[in-house]
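QA checklist item 7 of 12: single-chain prediction sanity check.
[x] sequence parsed
[x] length recorded as 284
[x] structure emitted
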Amino acid sequence: MHPAEANSGISFYRTNLDDGRDCEIPADFRYVDATDLCTSIGTTDGSVATIEHLMATFRALDVDNCMVEIDGAEVPVMDGSADAFIDAIDQVGIETLSAPRRYIKINKPIRVEVGKSVCEFTPYDGQRIEVEIDFANPLVGKQAYAFDVCGETFRKEIGRARTFGFYADVKTLWARGFALGASLDNAIVIGEDKVMNPEGLRYEDEFVRHKALDAIGDLALAGAPILGCYRSHRGGHKLNHMALEALLADRDAWSYVEMPVRRETGHADLQAGVAAAAFGPDVS
C-alpha cells in the first residue's frame, strides 16, 4: 500500500500480468465486473478480486487515498477477516491532508428488492449500517447487527469477523478444482451440525458481523463516504452493488457535501502468500 495525493481516491495497480504489462484499476463501482463469491473490479487489461475486506478497512479507518500494488488476481484473504489490514495500516499510521473531505449525503430513500432480499438507503446523520441475515442452517439462522461506522467500532466489533461457508459447498468446489486455498485458517467452515473450526467463533453473531464488513467494503466503491443509513436484509455482494448503482443513478437521491479532514495511508509493505478462499452460494 502506497500513499496517494488528495482527491486521487483508492486504486489497485496490477503488476505481472500474463502479457508482461501492468494496469491501474480504480476502486469504483463502475469497474465492478463480478459479485458472485466476492467483489471484483477490472478493466479490459486486468482485474482484482476479493477487494471487499481491504476496502472496508480503508473506509472504516478514513483512508480516502491510497494506491494498492498487487501482483496477483486476488487480494490475499489472510484469515478471512480484515484484521491483518487493520494492523498494517495502524503500524504505519495515517496522514491527514489539507483538502476538505467529500461525502455522499443521502437525500431520499432508495430501495432495491430481489425476491426475499431487500437493501435500502435512507437519510441519516452519520454513517450507519444495519444488516439482517436469514439462513436455513440453524447454526447461522437469523441474526441482525447495526452500528455507526467508525474506526474503533470496526477494530473491535467488525474487522475480526471472518468469511464463512458450508462444508458441503466446499467439497463440491474442491471436486471441480476450485477454492483450493479454502481452509479452517481463512474461513469459518460450517458442517452439518457444528462449526468445524477448533477455536469456534470470535463473536456469537460472527456471521452477520462479517456480512456487515462486506457491506462496508462494497459501499466503499461509491468513491466517498456515504452519510446515510444502509439497511440490508438477506443481502450480499450482488445486492450491495445493485443498491449502490441505483443510488448513484438517481441524482436527486444524493448530493456531495464537504467537511474538513482528508486522510491517506503512509507506506506499508503488506505481503502474503495466502490463497483467497471461495465458497458456494451461501458465501458471506
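[x] summary fact logged: The radius of gyration is 18 Å.
[ ] second reviewer sign-off
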